[in-house]
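We modelled the chain as a single entity of 310 amino acids. Its sequence is:
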Amino acid sequence: MFAVEQSLSAVLIVPTLNPDCRWSEWLAAYNKQTCKLDVDCLIIDSGSGIDFIDFTIAAGCKVVSIDKNEFNHGGTRQFGVELSGNAEFVVFCTQDAIFSHEDALKNLLSCFANEQVGAVYGRQLPHKDAGCIGAHARLFNYPPQSCLKGSEDIPEMGIKTAFISNSFAAYRVSVLKSIGGFPTNTIMNEDTYVAAKMILAGWKIAYCAEASVFHSHDYSVREDLKRYFDIGVFHSREPWLRELFGDAEGEGIRFVLSEAKFLFKHAIWLLPSAFVRTIAKYAGYKLGGIEGRLPQQLKRKLSMHSRYWS
């Protein structure tokens, strides 16, 4: 069973499932982190096989295995928190988010020097082989300027106030526990759920641009529709978010205008594709919002996380 050294102040938790060739790169980047000796690394694996486990343990990580049917975005991360012993902070990263420099973890955790900070997330840079549409999404959501967000920012920032990403984020464990931890059965956006709860409880969410990872996706139109269907499901099942923070559609319009401007400058031939994607995203989000009226079989087909509907 995984055990945390009593002297460690933080635990890095990484859910994995059949990582691709980037995993060796992930491990190499982790082992170069300047604060590695102060951060234990726990891999929660969903059946990647004995070769993966042996390779990962040899690289200095600890591995706990779960059945892939037991994986849940919030529940699995809460499981990791519960395995983290007396650690003061937990850091989450995904298997395809590669630390971009050796001080990434150190800089992220340094934000907790501000005792008002309940959670912090780092900057995500597009992978070197990212397409223009995937690259813009990262550049739009993760600017080069750090910031601090709290309840006073809701009137101006709306739902963006609670934006955070568990692809690279850290939480003050005492605060995480005080707001009830991660939801144990959510389709996705467990990070936004927790950030919103912290903000409403008076805590701050920090964005640390000086802590960065390479992480981006080149989704197909179909994948975009599925992803936004799941986001719509999340917002439908957590209506308090829109009631207290506002709708996400205003932020969506701002994204579309920014994307069009970016593509006009860098890849004008992709504008028709971006237009189709925008329609797919909007349709997916709206369908997710009425998922209660849809048959179970259709929801499985529309969702990026079909196991959620089992």
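As a brief sanity check on the tokenised model: The longest strand covers residues 204-214. Strands lie at 10-16, 39-45, 62-65, 89-93, 98-99, 117-125, 147-149, 168-172, 204-214.
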